[in-house]
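pasting for ref
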Amino acid sequence: MNFIDGFVAAVPTENKAKYIEHAKEAALLFKGYGALGVVECWGEDVPEGEKTSFPMAVKCEEHETVVFSWVTWPSKAVRDKGWEAMMQDEKMAAFEMPFDGSRLIYGGFQTIVNE
């Protein structure tokens, strides 16, 4: 089954257009290194929790919006090789993040159900 890299970030709401441009460029890079697809989602109904929530996880501030995204890879091996190559790519080094990357949360997940 596919392997998924998942991401959650807090993006300044005023940077939505910049984020979309960044995401489109990043998607081309990911796909160039073997990703099957990239999905980017701008938060619209993301409630603040009492114990835990997306906003709490990324320390989302009032002027920010939670973004949830994922990259689909055909396998973990392709993902690992793709990430290794991307880290050497000068395009990756040139990316200007339109958000505070220190509050980005991410992880790699093995697909176990895909109905």
